[in-house]
Amino acid sequence: MLEQLDRIQSEATAALEAISDPDALRAWYGVHLAKKSRLMTMLGDLGKLPKEQRAEIGKRANEVKRALEAAYAAKEEALRRAALERSLAAEAYDVTLPGRPVQAGRLHVTTVEMRRIVAIFAEMGFQVFRSREVESDWYNFQLLNFPPDHPAREMQDTFYTTNPEVLLRTHTSPGQIRAMEALRPDPIRVILPGMCYRYEQISARSEIMFLQVEGLAVGHHITMTDLKGTMIDFARRMYGQERQVRFRASYFPFTEPSVEVDMDCILCNGAGCRMCRYSGWLEISGAGMVHPTVLRNGGYDPDEWSGFAFGMGPQRATILKYGIDDIRHFWANDLRFLEQF
Ligand SMILES: [Zn+2]
Predict the structure, then answer these.
(1) How are beta strands 245-252 and 209-219 bridged, if at all?
(2) Which of 27, 45, 144, 247 makes a 20 to 30 Å CA pair with 152?
(3) What pTM value is reported for the model?
(4) How far is CA 286 from CA 78, 80, 135, 200, 304, in A?
């Protein structure tokens, strides 16, 4: 019996020494120290031994059990330590390495231009008035003097909802009526930046969604001179004090008289180049004196009040400034384009 115990100890110890992973260690425990192992079975059967052998065998069996348990615990600890050292070695890092820079995001080029425009008009006393992008036919067209079947509607087809009276606005101009309704009977000086939509063939020159900035001033004794001064001042603050500005007669249903605002080409200074199509001039805005009917529709008596309005496209301004050849770049999310600004 004592020899058997020696053999159990030496075999178990040899097996334990060969172990190098936790799974094998668990299996070893099952074979050598669990309830049904040879050693534990012998300990359980001690009572069956003759009385004179029982004390000696029992003592030795318990010694073997304690020795194996201690060896098992030592092995478990050694394996845990080895695993820790391996993971430390594998994930070692050098604290003296310089840090990796965090990739900073940036504003979209149109947002930058839009903010410049807003800042310039803010300096002139204009406040931002936010207006809805989903509009009714009534606000988008009729209150702005586009009755149903008006030919100017041909230029501004849009996207309709299942309710034909509800549409995506084709311009920021319905915001003029919204601003007048919100601010009457006070004088008004606001700009209305925002997205507009048109049902158009997408090409290098036209997109189905684009940004516009509308401006509206309503007050007593506002004249064409105020409009001209505001436009010239804006062009010079935005593009440089040396800019020349001219006004051409035009037509919009909601202004009378209406003008197109041009400034001399920023690339060729008026000499003529590809960007200005050899005219020397770039169109920067449509504008005019608010039509008396529109003033009335907004709740202002045109006999007492007058005003001017203008509209411009920040994307068009950006295209001109950087010589961008395709308006579709703005929404294409191509980093090669966006990272240039
Ligand atoms: Zn030019």
Answers:
(1) unpaired
(2) 247
(3) 0.68
(4) 82, 77, 22, 20, 25
